Amino acid sequence: MTVGEALLVRRSKRAYSPEPVPRDKLLKILKDAARAPSAENTQPWEIYIAEGETLKRIKAGYAECYAYSVKANPELALPTEWTEDTTRRKRGLFPDMVHDCGEAIHQFAALNQSMFNAPAVIYICMDKMLSSWSIYDIGAYAQGFMLSAAENGLGTIPSVTLVIYPEVLRKELHLPDNLKIIIGIAIGYADTTNRINDFNSSRSPIKENVRFCE
Known about the structure:
The chain is built from nine helices and four strands.
C-alpha cells in the first residue's frame, strides 16, 4: 500500500468487532507512528493504551457520566466559535452521513457514547509545560498512527468524545499530574456489516483553500 492509497483508505470507523488488536500489530503501528517529525526531535507524545478490563472500567465510568448528564470537560479546550467556511463544511456532514449510511445513522449517538465498541483506545498526552508547537507534533504522530493502522487492516477514529471525562481517564490510566490529555483514537477491526462505516466524508476542492503565490 502506498502513502496515497493509505490516505484514501483511512476513514473514521464508528463501529468495531470485538476482536482484540494483536499486540505485535499494535506495536508495529506505534513504532511507525513514532517516526513523526517533531520540533528539535522532542517527541512530546506520551501514549497510554486502554484495553481489556481497563477499557471496560473507562466505558462504565463514561456511562455513569452520561447517565447523570455530566458536562464534557476535555483538557484541550473545545472551540467556542467557527469561521464561516468551517461552519459550512460542518453543516454538510450530516446530510452526507444520511446519504452514505441510511438508517444506520441513528446509531451515531449511541456509538459515540460506547466508544464505538472498540477493543482498544490510545490516549495521546503531553507535558503541561509544553506549548502549542507540541500539539502540532502530536497531530503528526496521530496521522502516522492512523495511516499505519490502515495499512495493517485496522480501522481508527480520533474523537473528542473519547476524552471528554478526564477524571475517569486519570483514575483508570493512572496518569501523572504533569500530563495533559490531548486526544483519543479508537482502534480495532471495523464492523463491515454496519453501514455506519460506509460514510466517506467529502473534501473541499483544492482551489478553495490553497493559494499558489508566484
